[in-house]
């Protein structure tokens, strides 16, 4: 009887593993298409020269789809990354990449406190009572220092790309 039980266990485990793999594949196929924002529009972007350096002020327009809202309320954090690139055109070679900076904001939800947390990685963390309030930090980031005062040449012309 023990030989029969031992032989039956691996077949049962294989069936369970196969079912779990099937469910995982189905879940990934269902969530894959909805696990991204519909689109992000940059409605305003402005560079300002200050005593500290060059700061970027921007306004982004986007909405989270239902899948992303469900993901965050179930404990999955969302990450929003803004990239800035300042290039200087050169006639003799490729354009010079003078500055390449990125800023990532982590948006999470705490079920116990029922608060949303937005954290600019390495610098700032704020709590919000609603998702819209938390998204306002992402849609309108504060003046972000993208270049130190001495990092750019004063007599040069630069192209700016924001993603």
Strand-helix topology:
Layout (H helix, E strand, L loop, with lengths): L1 H30 L9 E9 L3 E9 L4 H8 L4 E11 L7 E15 L4 E6 L3 E5 L2 H9 L4 E5 L10 E4 L1
Antiparallel strand pairs: 1-2, 2-7, 3-4, 3-8, 4-5, 5-6
Explain this structure to me?
It is a single chain. The chain has 163 residues and is α+β, with helices and mostly antiparallel strands. The protein folds into two domains: 1-33; 41-162, no CATH class. Helices cover 29% and strands 39% of the residues. The protein contains three helices and eight strands. The strands form two sheets. Strands 6-5-4-3-8 form a five-stranded antiparallel β-sheet. A hairpin with a 3-residue loop joins strand 1 and strand 2 (53-61). The longest helix has 30 residues, at 2-31. The radius of gyration is 24 Å and the shape is elongated. It starts with a helix and ends with a strand. 9% of the residues are buried. Residues 1-9 and 22-36 have low confidence and may be disordered.
